């Protein structure tokens, strides 16, 4: 559990925030949420829409995607599985953030330290026997090898990790980003994996953590971000918040009724839970 929780104690920065998005032709709540790192249900609720509702091109959507960035003093790539975010650091300074899809509960993404081991454009997917068996059980056509093509689920870029069988790659289904739904790999939007691929090389250090509860203080606010515990590794969310608050000396500045509400919602957005609220534009 040390690997899972240690990174959450040192927090300092945020990414995203309240904004407005102008709907483009072909957009859906799923595709917008995947691109901006916000859950479809949250996006629908914020805009008084149904999750499956068709969007009108040119209309404006309210966006709230404030995420807390965990400290990464000795890793250039930090992946937080329940947060469904990858953060890239350059020379120890935060540089980029990308929404991801990580492993589903039945096929978990391994946690721990890694280095980038291989870099490949237009990869061929050699389908692992375990996934072939899953295809067989589901009554699907069993694939053994998928060459570079629009049908290749790896997309156009593959960054292989030192963790056996795990890589960071693109996708041929952009709307599938920002969830727990892969076979253990880290999946990025096609534009994001192209951007990340250009910024890394082999030997880059990274870390995969599992922290559904994040807490930080910034500009007089105490921000709390809570995600669903898809792998069921944190038994008591409130106890986790209490531990983080004690570690940061924030326990006396927090409105604990607000904390309980954020835990109840688990919407994956950072909320101000300070006892004395300062208006910032965040909800």
In short:
The chain has 283 residues and is an alpha+beta fold.
Fold blueprint:
Blueprint: H1 2-5, E1 11-15, E2 18-22, H2 29-36, H3 40-46, E3 60-64, E4 67-70, E5 77-80, E6 85-90, E7 93-103, E8 112-121, E9 125-126, H4 129-137, E10 145-146, E11 157-161, E12 167-169, E13 179-182, E14 186-188, H5 190-199, E15 205-209, E16 213-218, E17 221-226, H6 237-248, H7 256-265, E18 271-272
Parallel strand pairs: 5-15, 7-13, 12-14
Antiparallel strand pairs: 1-4, 2-3, 5-6, 6-7, 7-14, 8-11, 8-15, 9-10, 11-12, 16-17, 17-18
Task: Explain what this protein looks like in three dimensions.
The structure is a single chain. This protein is of the alpha+beta class. Helix content is 21%, strand content 31%. The chain has 3 domains: 157 residues, Beta Barrel (L,D-transpeptidase catalytic domain-like); 47 residues, LysM domain (Membrane-bound Lytic Murein Transglycosylase D, Chain A), CATH 3.10.350.10; 60 residues, no CATH class. An 8-stranded mixed barrel has the order 5-6-7-14-12-11-8-15. The radius of gyration is 19 Å and the shape is globular. It starts with a helix and ends in an 11-residue tail after the last strand.
- Give the C-level CATH assignment of the largest domain: Mainly Beta
The topology string of helices and strands comes to HEEHHEEEEEEEHEEEEEHEEEHHE
The CATH topology of the largest domain comes to: L,D-transpeptidase catalytic domain-like
Summed over residues and divided by their number, the pLDDT gives a mean of 91
Radius of gyration: 19 Å
Beta-strand content estimate: 25-35%
Number of strands: 18
- Counting structural domains, the number is 3
